Amino acid sequence: xxxxxxxxxxxxxSAGNIIxxxxxxxxxxxxxxxxxxxxxxxxxxxAEQAIIDTIQKAYPNHCIVSEECGVVDGSDQDYQWxxxxxxxxxxxxxxxxxxxxxxxxxxxxxxxxxxxxxxxRGEVFTASxxxxxxxxxxxxxxxxxxxxxxxxxxxxxxxxKKHHSDAYFEMFKTMFVKTADMRRAGSAALDLAYVAAGRVxxxxxxxxxxxxxxxxxxxxxxxxxLVTDFVGGHNHSQSGNIVAASTKVLKEILKDIRPHLxxxxxx
Length: 267
Ligand code: IPD
Ligand code: CA
Ligand code: CA
Prior knowledge:
The strands form 3 sheets. An 8-stranded mixed β-sheet has the order 4-3-5-6-7-8-9-10, with helices on both faces. Helix 1 (3-23) runs antiparallel to helix 2 and helix 5 (188-196) runs parallel beside helix 6. The protein folds into 2 domains: 3-139, 2-Layer Sandwich (Fructose-1,6-Bisphosphatase, Chain A, domain 1), CATH 3.30.540.10; 152-260, D-Maltodextrin-Binding Protein, domain 2, CATH 3.40.190. It is built from 8 helices and 15 strands. The relative contact order is 0.13. The model has no long low-confidence stretch (mean pLDDT 95). The chain is an alpha+beta fold. 35% of the residues lie in helices and 28% in strands. Strand 8 and strand 9 form a beta hairpin. It binds D-MYO-inositol-1-phosphate (IPD) and calcium ion (2 copies). One calcium ion is lined by residues 44, 67, 84, 86-87, 89.
């Protein structure tokens, strides 16, 4: 394993231990609202600190961008860690056992290493640039489905941006009638990891942040899939509008969402 991935996995495991221990003791979880329908807990912050401590111990000069604490500048601008310490906070605070730790490393602006750790199932999804993607050390691949017939797609509702509801549910409907079924499980990181593992045939969501998708994007690409914005371009880390699937399924998803984009989602 690449030494930087090794550190990422160590950091993800230590955060995951904090999260799964606290999941059993909900009375110790303190929740606040940081935005519209946007929860954060003391556990998100404790997990984040554990990750940052592990990374900084190994690489004190690297830069870090993390959901709860923002940018931690380092003298070496070539290395940037992108962290979501707890993806699926709503599930976590409601007692639904589906959430993950997501850590990615960009080197000179390119995704290089990624880990997504599901502490409830003990699943560690990893990827290194040019080296494929793995689940608990075994190779995973995107399902090479040729269309939406018989497929299951993952998605996320735009619950923090409800002004997109009309456009989103039109897209949803267009695809839903063609698929076998859809899933809204509540963790963008795991949605992308499940695309990489071939558990779902594709995924789309509006308005995500870089920490939701960075690690998942490398996993999908290294597992043989594509990740784009809503018009097939590469603006998804800026716009937060993301589609991930095999080449053929992605093409069909883009075709289905195109009529519902309007100006604000056309990127
Ligand atoms: C959220 C989850 C959710 C997605 C949201 C994300 P958080 O991340 O990934 O599935 O629908 O858009 O913000 O807030 O739990 O880290
Ligand atoms: Ca997130
Ligand atoms: Ca989070």
